[in-house]
Amino acid sequence: MGTHFLGDTAVLLGRSLRHVTRSLDTIITTAITPIAMMLLFVYVFGGAINAGPHSYVNYLLPGILLVTIASGIAYTTLRLFLDMRSGIFERFQSMPIARSSVLWAHVLTSLVANLISLVLVVLVALLMGFRSGAGVLSWLAVAGILVLFTLALTWIAVIPGLSAKSVDGATGYSYPLIFLPFVSSAFVPTDTMPGPVRAFAEHQPVTSIVNTIRDLFTRQPVGTDIWIALAWCVGILIVAYLFASISYRRRIS
């Protein structure tokens, strides 16, 4: 059964990736918005923001990486929604394939596409002056956190992709996720915020994830932030996966 599932997922993943490679503009578009934000904040607002001993692009990049992921998963919802509307899911169900492989193919396609977008953003950040003395293990830790965060948000994206009634409904949910980093430590230190806003910013998932990535990049002790970040990512991933699976079973039953 496991081999059957893996084989079916690999075939469907290849199909989804071919669709992505035929429309690379979606990946480029996904990367353009966070890159534009990075340019705006560094070159327009950066001089007015105290980012401590490091350059503002170094301070900003972890938050921009999360914005990139939040922007990219909207395309996952759209692709899933269009497959549902086109009847391709019904055709898949009539074939001898593992049912869950259809969803996993979309999720893994999202992961690949988002990783490409993240690489593009990091390359632009390097051109803007981003520098890190982090070693290989720290970079691998950053990559692991970003993969977990991508998977968590992608499984959230699966839910509206399966249940939305329109394109706007399928993609509209992503806007709160994109703007969540703005009320966190991603762009400015939380101690500059008024009381209630600061309390929210310090206890939402983006802040612990951003702080962890920033500390890894600057070779600072990560403290408890890394465990809080991992707990948020894994917790969201599990809950979103369960709700997405329930929604999928209802749609194909």
TrEMBL record:
<feature type="domain" description="ABC transmembrane type-2">
    <location>
        <begin position="25"/>
        <end position="251"/>
    </location>
</feature>
<dbReference type="InterPro" id="IPR013525">
    <property type="entry name" value="ABC2_TM"/>
</dbReference>
<dbReference type="InterPro" id="IPR051784">
    <property type="entry name" value="Nod_factor_ABC_transporter"/>
</dbReference>
<feature type="transmembrane region" description="Helical">
    <location>
        <begin position="57"/>
        <end position="82"/>
    </location>
</feature>
<keyword id="KW-0812">Transmembrane</keyword>
<protein>
    <recommendedName>
        <fullName>Transport permease protein</fullName>
    </recommendedName>
</protein>
<feature type="transmembrane region" description="Helical">
    <location>
        <begin position="226"/>
        <end position="244"/>
    </location>
</feature>
<keyword id="KW-1003">Cell membrane</keyword>
<keyword id="KW-0046">Antibiotic resistance</keyword>
<keyword id="KW-0472">Membrane</keyword>
<feature type="transmembrane region" description="Helical">
    <location>
        <begin position="24"/>
        <end position="45"/>
    </location>
</feature>
<keyword id="KW-1133">Transmembrane helix</keyword>
<dbReference type="InterPro" id="IPR047817">
    <property type="entry name" value="ABC2_TM_bact-type"/>
</dbReference>
<keyword id="KW-0813">Transport</keyword>
<dbReference type="Pfam" id="PF01061">
    <property type="entry name" value="ABC2_membrane"/>
</dbReference>
<comment type="similarity">
    <text>Belongs to the ABC-2 integral membrane protein family.</text>
</comment>
<dbReference type="InterPro" id="IPR000412">
    <property type="entry name" value="ABC_2_transport"/>
</dbReference>
<feature type="transmembrane region" description="Helical">
    <location>
        <begin position="103"/>
        <end position="130"/>
    </location>
</feature>
<feature type="transmembrane region" description="Helical">
    <location>
        <begin position="136"/>
        <end position="158"/>
    </location>
</feature>
